[in-house]
Specification:
The complex is a heterodimer of chains A (180) and B (164). With 180 residues, chain A is α+β, with helices and mostly antiparallel strands. Chain A is 43% helix and 13% strand. In chain A, the strands form 3 sheets. Chain A has a two-stranded antiparallel sheet. Chain A has a two-stranded antiparallel ribbon with strand order 3-4. The longest helix of chain A has 30 residues. The chains are: A alpha+beta (180), B alpha+beta (164).
Chain lengths: 180, 164
């Protein structure tokens, strides 16, 4: 259901649908506006037209393709100025870390591999290192987003335990075969 | 690649299939949804917030689950007392007692929820035990939103925000 802000005010409220009492603080966010200089206002010698908006003065060039762009087209991300087309291409190709919103939780993958290794001990010598690799990559993944690394460290410890258990199990099998 | 500034976790919540984490990052909140091993991340920026709410609620599903387990273990203790002996029954009774305790805690202590509605996304911060901490977070978020929106307006003061 869409939020109808006209029904709300700051202060104590009661939900019209369920009767729950709650407190609310309403805000009036400022609208984002780009200030664009028209080419006519800038004068004939002042500059070049934007490649996308011929009436606007170009104020920058794309850091990837060099296209001249106005303030309306300018997208600044990760310290680079991009035109909308390059931004769309890089986002579609998952090349910009700041726009990445979906990812695989490698800590979960590591725990999952360790669990499979525990259930199938004869595969643990292979699955344990694979889980450890995922845990190390998970720690790197978390460092990139500024998150705590307690969970990947726990996953790494579990992976090493699974590896040890698998090697012990394998050793016992080999010992059994040799002694027989 | 440089590491991003450290984010601070504000809330941890889960339902049957998904885990939710809310972090405070510079300029906004980051919501992480992890379903099995697939995760998605979205943000609510302070300068786009339209509404912040605070309410308390009782987790009906958790209360139901705790009640079912408490009843189940109490029933097991009662049924198994004769055939399996007093020790087994006492074990089940102890488990039933633990779930009864959990049930009492859930009924007496409501959850505290702070919801931040942005223009595009929303973040829900759930605090389980500390209402005082939830109030602090609510007040701090309101102040930060107001400050961010004032800065976005170029220092022009926004409507007065009062949080009890």
């Amino acid at each position: 259901m869409a939020l109808d802000l006209t029904l709300l005010a700051s202060g104590p409220q009661t939900c019209a649908a369920c009767g729950t009492r709650f407190e609310a603080v309403l805000f009036d966010p400022p609208l984002a506006r780009a200030t664009v200089t028209r080419l006519g206002e800038a004068g004939p010698a002042a500059g070049t037209a934007c490649a996308n908006h011929t009436g606007n003065l170009a104020t920058a060039h794309c850091g990837r393709c060099g296209l001249l762009i106005c303030d309306l087209c300018r997208i600044e991300t990760e310290g680079v100025v991009l035109c909308p087309a390059c931004f769309a291409r890089l986002t579609a190709g998952d090349a910009l870390a700041s726009t990445r919103s979906r990812y695989t939780d490698l800590t979960g993958v590591s725990f999952l591999i360790s669990l499979v290794g525990l259930m199938m001990c004869f595969l643990a010598p292979l699955l344990g290192p694979a889980a450890a690799y995922c845990a190390v990559r998970a720690a790197r993944q978390r460092r990139e987003v500024g998150a705590a690394r307690a969970a990947p460290v726990a996953a790494l410890i579990v992976a090493l335990l699974v590896t040890g258990l698998g090697l012990f199990f394998l050793g016992m099998i080999i010992y059994g075969i040799v002694s027989a | 690649m440089t590491a991003r500034p450290r984010r601070k976790r504000l809330s941890r919540d889960a339902d049957v299939a998904t885990r939710y984490r809310v972090y405070e990052v510079p300029g906004g909140l980051e919501v992480e949804e992890i379903s099995f091993i697939e995760a998605s991340r979205r943000r609510v920026f302070f300068d786009e917030v339209v509404l912040v709410t605070y309410h308390r609620y009782r987790p009906v599903s958790a209360i139901g689950v705790a009640a079912v387990f408490a009843l189940l273990f109490a029933l097991c203790a009662a049924v198994l007392r004769e055939p399996a002996g007093a020790q087994v029954a006492a074990g089940f009774a102890a488990l039933g007692g633990l779930f009864t305790l959990l049930l009492a805690v859930l009924v007496v202590n409501p959850y505290h929820a702070i919801t931040v509605f942005g223009l595009r996304n929303r973040a829900r911060i759930v605090r389980r035990l500390s209402g005082r901490r939830a109030r602090e977070i609510y007040a701090r978020l309101c102040r930060e939103v107001e400050a961010a929106q004032r800065a976005a307006r170029g220092g022009e003061p926004a409507a007065a925000v009062e949080v009890s």
